[in-house]
Amino acid sequence: MPFTCLKFRTMRVDGDAVLAELLATDTVARKEWNANRKLIHDPRVTPFGRLLRSTSLDELPQLLNVLRGDMSLVGPRPVTQNELDLYYEPDCARLAYLSVRPGITGPWQVGGRSELSYPKRVALDHQYAEQQSLRTDMLILFRTINVVMRRTGAH
Question: What are the tens digits of pLDDT across the range 22-36?
Answer without folding.
Answer: 999 999 999 999 888
